[in-house]
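Good day; I would like, with your permission, to put a structural problem before you. A protein sequence and the structure tokens that stand for its backbone fold form the material at issue. The record follows directly beneath this note:
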Amino acid sequence: MARFTTRRPLFLSALAATAVLTTACSGPGGVDLGKDWKGSKTFVLAKVDGLVTVVGINPDKARAESLAVVPQQADDDDSVSPQIVELADGRWLLTVPRKGNKPDRRYEVSRKDHVLDGLTADERLRRLLPGKTLVAEVAGLPDTKSAQQAAASSVLVKDPAHWTTERELKIPGTIGLAASDPAADRICLGNDSKVFAVDLTSGEVTPVPVPSGLDVENLACPAGHPVIVGGTSSSGSGTVKATLTRAAAETTVSVSGGRVDAVAATGSSVLIAAATGSGDTEIVELDATTGKELHRARVKGVAASLDVAATSAGWLLYTEKTVTRVDPTTGRTREFDLPGTLLDS
């Protein structure tokens, strides 16, 4: 499931097709490229030897390999992180922001040919959120105005078959948090005080109630249902407690005893990764309907995490330099290195 928070600036664009870029055993700049395209269940972007690189993650073998180097250009905007995301049809897209008002560069990852296909972009600084049949391209900072002339952030709804714009939506204020689920054409957007559910098919934007006093720290959107995650304490106590309350319009997860670093939804459950304040991270899995705790594991030595994900081989907890595979049943962990510094996952 794609999501972003304020630690990842928003940026994606729109596309059509053009060139093809090939990979080899040794990529540009001397980056050593692996061959585990088949075993890679997911892809991330990392800075390897100073170059933006597509890295394949094989959770079964606990291995991360550089697979393709993204072409570098003089007008790349290094102040904004590139993005990689999987669409509902299985395609993986990545985008590199450019300086000034130039459209972002976009590429499609070809598993079959082991290449990056260059694509033409016509938007800049937008992040793409995949739905079931449509996608949303979200501007983070206000770039438009609402009917009442208040500052608003635009959302472009597009058909990924032809990348035609179906409609443009306006979300009040700044979008700092967003999540989507490729199983539904409904996305979730918000900031630290407001949350909206957005129907990509109809264009309807619905405000979602946020409990009074809850600081919204993260967001998930399983099947288009907003899951609002907030902390009741910024300091860690060593034991993380997560309380889930489900209502018709939204689900709220209140976390105490730790700092929420990452959230993921699996469809039937919600994963919370929280730093304990004692140099460790606890991952807690809750039933998305009942709130019952299903699994819990402590990852020792990880004081802060950047992302958490569920795979068939277990949970994956990402830091800047490493990935830790966690068995949710036994709590056993296995850490393996990224070939560089994580940029997006």
In short: The chain is about 0% helix and 50% strand. Confidence is low (pLDDT under 50) at residues 1-25. Residues 215 and 230 are 5 Å apart (CA to CA). The first strand starts at residue 3 and ends at 4.
